[in-house]
Amino acid sequence: MISLIYSPEFLEHNTGYGHPEKAKRLTAIVEALKEVEWHEQIDWQLPTAVQPKKILAHIQKIHTPEHIERIKQVASNGGGYLDADTPISERSYDVALLAVSAWLDGVDRVIENNSPAFVLARPPGHHATHNTAMGFCLFSNAAIAANYALTKPNIKRVGILDWDVHHGNGTEAIVQDNPQIAYCSLHQHPCYPGTGSNQNAHGKHQNILNLPMKAGSTISNYQQVFEQEVMPFFQNWQPDLLIVSAGYDANHDDPLAGISLQPADYILLTKYVLKITNSPLFGLEGGYHLEALAQSVVATLNTCL
Questions:
Q1: What global pTM score does this model have?
Q2: pLDDT, tens digit, for every residue of 147-159?
Q3: 51 DSSP assignment
Q4: How far apart are CA 301 and CA 282, in angstroms?
Q5: Residue 21: which of 83, 100, 102, 104 has the closest Cα?
Q6: Rounded distance, CA 88 to CA 71, Å?
Q7: β-bridge pairing 241-246 and 208-213
Q8: Within 13 Å and on the Cβ side, how many CA atoms surround 209?
Q9: Could you identify which of 33, 44, 233, 247 might form a hypothetical disulfide with 285, taking C-beta atoms 3.0 to 4.6 angstroms apart as the criterion?
Q10: Angle at the Cα of 215 (from 212 to 217), degrees rounded to 5?
Q11: CATH number for the domain that contains residue 207
């Protein structure tokens, strides 16, 4: 059994006509999961209803009051652009709070059940910095979840593995000064947002590992990097909880980048994750080719089962 945290409310974050980060990303995944023969092994869970003060307390540990208030105000005025790539609608602030709630629920599920969980939520989060929404991202879901996990008994060290095709500049900036959180990112470079190029910049706590990948990289390239870099990094770190910023835009068919993975390749990547821990938390980030995205999530969940 694997916990999957999802709400139809996540569809109400409306980014407008033609935007790649759209509600159909989630409906494509949901429809694909309902068709698999093992669908009864998925424990579908609604996220905990938002208690604003409680959720904001966790967000405020990560983001500035000005950042939070700007998202709230733009949404309350009917929506608008937070940056050139990041439009929001009148429901986006509330939906973003619910997404954070879902990620926190994911932490609880993994700890309580000692089994994997997948947060199927939007908007994504790994580009959001302390004080800036960017790259389709409003709040830094993975960083918030990592800090929340550290409030739990027996969770002293958290790892974040980011296999989204874009570097999680926001996650790195937020967690790099925390000696209890390690961040590792595999991402195409050069590519948006242009960060993460220095493979030797490990931070003052030796808790950062950036692994830039060339356009056209295939699963054989990823396998080599996992064996030589990713696995030793996390084996040395020994996290009590591993969070995966699970973007699926490294697929060959994805329109926003140039890596050449196939959906079935996420079977191998997930197997590596399960070697680090048998109870990871996955949370959706990018992935913009609907069929490739859906089948990649299927591959991840099937491997966990």
A1: 0.98
A2: 999 999 999 999 9
A3: -
A4: 10
A5: 83
A6: 8
A7: unpaired
A8: 21
A9: 247
A10: 80
A11: 3.40.800.20
- Residue 151's SS3 state is coil
For 125, 164, 165, 215, 232, the CA distances from 21, given in Å and listed in that order, are 12, 14, 14, 22, 33
188: left (phi over 0), alpha (psi -120 to 50) or beta: beta
CB 163 within 8 A of CB 186: yes
Active site residue ranges:
127
Does the structure show a pLDDT above 90 at 206? yes
Provide the token pair at 79: 């929506």
**Cis ω for the linkage preceding 124 (within 30 of 0):** no
Quote the domain boundaries for residue 125: 2-304
* Cα–Cα nearest to 219, from 271, 286, 294: 271
Tell me the H-state helices in 201-286. 219-225, 231-237, 265-276
Strands 281-284 and 117-119: parallel
List, for residues 59-92, the tens digit of each pLDDT value. 999 999 999 999 999 999 999 999 999 999 999 9
Residue 245: in which H helix or E strand, if any? strand 241-246
Under 8 Å CB-to-CB from 171, ≥6 apart: which residues? Answer: 125, 126, 140, 142, 143, 160, 162, 183, 185, 245
Q: Is residue 170 within a helix (H) or strand (E), and if so which, with residue range?
A: helix 169-175
Query: Tens of pLDDT along 263-281?
Result: 999 999 999 999 999 999 9
Please tell me the distance from the alpha carbon of residue 110 to that of residue 281, in angstroms, as a whole number: 7
Helix, strand, or coil (residue 87): strand
